[in-house]
Amino acid sequence: RAYRKIAQCYGPIHGLVHSAIVLDDQGLASIDEDRFRAGLAAKMDVSVRIAQVFQHEALDFVLFFSSLQSFSKNPGQSNYAAGCTFTDAFAHYLARHWSCAVKVMNWGYWGGTGVVASQDYQARMTRAGVGSIEPREGMDALAFLLNGSLDQVALMKTVDARPAHNTRARKVPEGEGGRGVATTIVPAPESTPAPP
C-alpha cells in the first residue's frame, strides 16, 4: 500500500535508502526474545521487504545504512549487531543479483544527534578513543561512497583518549575538527558471508 501511494504521489522511484534502527541495549544473557527480535527486525525484515517490494523497479541505487557493529560487537548490542551483519550480507547478495548499484555505509558513532547523543554516552565513547561523526563528515563520506567504485565503506572518527597531561601538543590542520581528531574512510572487509 505504501509503495502504491509513493508511486502515485511522486512518480518513478530512482533510489532507496534503508536507515531503520532500533537500538535497545541489553546483555545477551538477559535479553528476551521479543526485545532481540525488535532490534534484529528493523534491519533484517525491512531489508527483505525492500527487496520484495522494489525488485521490479528500475532503480539507480539502493543504499543501506549499517554500522561498525558488523565488525566489532559492543556489549549489550547483540540484536543490533546481528541486524547490521545481516544487512551487510543481504546487500552483497542484492549487488550480485540486481542491475543497480547497491551500497553499504557502515557508520561509526554519531554523538551529536540521534539515539546515542547523551552526554554520558559521549563521555564513554571519548574515553574509548571514539569521536562523534559530524553531519558534514557524514555527508562527505556518503558522497565518497555513492560517487566511487566501492560498494561498502566504513566511517569511524577517532580521538586521542589519553589524559591531557600525557598528550603532546600538536597543531591540528584547519578543518580537521579539533584536538587530535582523525576521520577515517576505509573500505569494509570483504569477509561478510552471503545469506543462505
Please report the distance between the alpha carbons of the first and last residues: 29 Å
Number of strands: 6
Mean pLDDT: 80
Specify the overall morphology. Answer: globular
Question: Biggest sheet, open or closed, and with what strands and sense?
Answer: 6 strands, mixed
The ordered string of helix (H) and strand (E) elements is: HEHEHEHEHEE
Q: Low-confidence parts lasting 5 or more residues at pLDDT below 50?
A: 165-184, 186-196
Proportion of β residues? Answer: 15-25%
Tally of separate helices: 5
Write up what this structure looks like:
The chain has 196 residues and is α/β, with parallel strands linked by helices. The chain contains five helices and six strands. The protein has helices at residues 2-10, 33-54, 78-97, 119-127, 135-147; strands at residues 15-18, 61-67, 101-107, 130-131, 152-158, 182-187. Strands 1, 2, 3, 4, 5 and 6 form a six-stranded mixed sheet that branches. Helix 2 links the parallel strand 1 and strand 2. Helix 2 (33-54) packs parallel to helix 3. It is globular. The two termini are 29 Å apart.
